[in-house]
Amino acid sequence: MPDKSAQEKTEQPTPKRKEEARKKGQVARSQEVNTAFMLLAGALMLMATGPSLFGTIHGLGTEIFGNVSSYQINPESLPGLSWSGALQIFGALFPFFAVMVVVGLVVNFGQVGIRVAEGALTPKWEKLNFFKGMKQLFSNAVFELLKNLFKMLVVTSVAFFVMKSHLKEFFLLGDRGVAGIVNFVGDVGFELFGKVVIAITIIAVADYIYQRYKHNKELKMTKQEVKEEHKQTEGDPQVKSRIRQQMQELSRSRMMQEVPEADVVITNPTHYAVAIKYEAAEMEAPRVLAKGMRKIAQRIKEVAREHDIPVVENPPLARSLYEMVEVGDEIPAKFYRAIAEILAQIYQAKQ
């Protein structure tokens, strides 16, 4: 029976898991953040270009209604008049809508980054599962419905309290004249719009935090999935151990092939063996051809005896050379005297 704890998604998603989800188009994104920033940009644009926009509309209205008696309204002139008015309104509103579009794109890319999700474009047959699709659609639809109802409730409440705070002024509008009414409506409208933006921003922050939490929860992994990913990324430990063992055996085999070229093998009788070679014409100092401990040390001594290479017991020197000098390296200067004495004795014995 599989371990239940190994099947529960308790582990945080790894960077690899997040990157794979990103390639599939699965990212944490809140539409409410886009809405909040676009509303905020709209409010700032109205503050910056509001007078100019209203001035354009006021001038267009004055021109139309002030000269209405002089217009020749007929099928031939009506399209031209309509296009002229539409172009003036479009020219006044274009900066406003252009900024809204740019802000929407920037905020959207700021949340998810600029990247083509190839996986999202690939057809997946499991998406044709009717019951699974209906379940996801229903759960998402219910959540979005509740969220939209909450937004409506918040916006309605904000509008109610703003209008309630100015209720007494509504009954006095008759004494203000047209200019006063326009100014009052503009002030209340800006106040209402600003407070709605603040409320939507708070909702957007909460929704963004929730979307991040939901996305992270969906990407959580089981302990087994983490292990499998580690194997894929770092390699199977057993395979790596086997490869390392084979490399060590190959290196040891090559090292053993160098032992017959040695001039002397210095040993600690049971633990260490170091094969040394020195050629005055080619080397600046004696060099270690092979070294080993225990079984490898015994094998080095056996190969040395097979090829009539002197084996000299010097435990302190053998231990120091084994610990301080790697195979193929020259011995340090502090060992020159000891090695020279051993080599001198060997050369004298050979003579």
Could you tell me the strand content as a percent range?
5-15%
User: Uncertain runs with pLDDT below 50, 5 residues or more?
Assistant: none
What is the H/E string? Answer: HHHHHHHHHHEEEHEHH
Coarse morphology: rod-shaped
Mean pLDDT, to the nearest integer, reads 77
**Number of E-type strands:** 4
Number of helices: 13
Number of domains: 2
Measured between the Cα atoms of the first and last residue, the distance is 76 Å
Q: For the largest beta sheet, what order do the strands appear in spatially?
A: 3-2-1-4
The largest pleated sheet is described as:
4 strands, mixed
From the alpha carbons, calculate the radius of gyration and give it in angstroms: 43 Å
Q: Provide the structure class.
A: mainly alpha
| Portion of residues within helices | 55-70%
Can you offer a commentary on this structure?
With 351 residues, the chain is mainly alpha-helical. It has two domains: 10-232, no CATH class; 240-350, name from scop (3-Layer(aba) Sandwich), CATH 3.40.1690.10. It contains 13 helices and four strands. It has helices at 4-7, 15-23, 31-66, 78-112, 118-121, 130-165, 167-170, 177-219, 223-234, 237-258, 294-306, 315-324, 336-350; strands at 264-268, 272-277, 287-293, 311-313. A hairpin with a 3-residue loop joins strand 1 (264-268) and strand 2 (272-277). Helix 3 runs antiparallel to helix 8 (177-219). The longest helix is centred in the middle third of the chain and has 43 residues, at 177-219. The radius of gyration is 43 Å and the shape is rod-shaped. The model has no long low-confidence stretch (mean pLDDT 77).
